[in-house]
Amino acid sequence: MWNLLSKLRLKKDNSSFTLKGNRQNIVVGKNTHIDSTVILNNEKGGTIEIGDNCNILENVIIATYGGNIKIGNHTSINPFCVLYGHGNLTIGNEVRIATHTVIIPANHQFKDLDTPIRLQGIERKGIKIGDNVWIGAGVNILDGVNIEKNSIIAAGAVVTKDIKKNAIVGGVPARVIKIRE
User: Fold this and answer.
1) What is the pLDDT of residues 49-105, one digit of tens each?
2) For residue 19, what are the CA distances in angstroms to 2, 16, 153?
3) Mean pLDDT, to the nearest integer, of 6-26?
4) Which residues, 6+ apart, have CB-to-CB distance to 57 below 8 Å?
5) Which strands form 158-159's sheet, in the order they lie side by side?
6) What are phi and psi of 14, to 5 degrees?
7) Is the dihedral of CA 146, 93, 169, 138 positive or negative?
8) How many CB atoms lie within 10 A of CB 85?
9) Which letter, b or e, does each residue of 6-23 get, where b requires 16 or more Cβ atoms within 10 Å of its Cβ?
10) What is the pLDDT of residues 119-175, one digit of tens each?
11) Neighbouring residues of 70: CB distance < 8 A, sequence distance ≥ 6
12) Is 111 in contact with 129 (CB distance < 8 Å)?
């Protein structure tokens, strides 16, 4: 985990995005661009750490919900992505995340049929995404998943299980299509 700085470091052109929560628990690296329509939200606690030379594009939502979100260097998050941090989210270096991807490190509990789902609590395992991963458009990554380095997730996939390094996966639920060699 990076050491948190006492203030948000941003270039002048990044000063107009929406920040909700504790500015002291948000760190943005050097030469990182954050579009003016992005929302960074840690109102419910947690930290957001974005590395150097990253690109966070239009209408991305990054919200901690009490967990921690760490995004490595040279990572791009394309328009309309939603990244939550409930159970902690770690994204490596050189990761490409295409438009409309949703990453949620939490899941509602639902075992009791007599209790509304909203009252049964949330399970939080966390999500880890390794270095040099390409996540295609419209992918959903669910709680408890570890995606190892050099993997590719095909557009529209729903990732519910761990992905080994160098794997190309796709489908609902995602399954291995090929291993990169």
Assistant:
1) 999 999 999 999 999 999 999 999 999 999 999 999 999 999 999 999 999 999 999
2) 20, 9, 30
3) 59
4) 35, 38, 76, 77, 78, 79
5) 18-20, 39-41, 61-63, 82-84, 102-104, 140-142, 158-159
6) -105, 5
7) positive
8) 30
9) eebebeeebeebebebee
10) 999 999 999 999 999 999 999 999 999 999 999 999 999 999 999 999 999 999 999
11) 1, 2, 47, 49, 89, 90, 91
12) no
Three-state SS at 48: strand
d(CA 42, CA 164): 31
Can you give the pTM of this predicted structure?
Answer: 0.89
* Residues identified as active-site: 108
Please tell me whether residue 119 adopts helix, strand or coil conformation.
helix
Radius of gyration of the chain (CA): 16
Distances in whole angstroms, Cα of residue 134 to Cα of each of 3, 67, 158? 27, 24, 14
Phi, psi of 145 (to 5 degrees): -90, 140
Q: Which one is predicted more confidently, 71 or 18? A: 71
DSSP code at position 24:
G
According to DSSP, the β-strands at 127-129 and 33-34 are: unpaired
Q: Give counts: helices (H), strands (E), the chain.
A: 0, 23
Torsion angle in degrees (nearest 10) through CA of 130, 166, 83, 10: 50
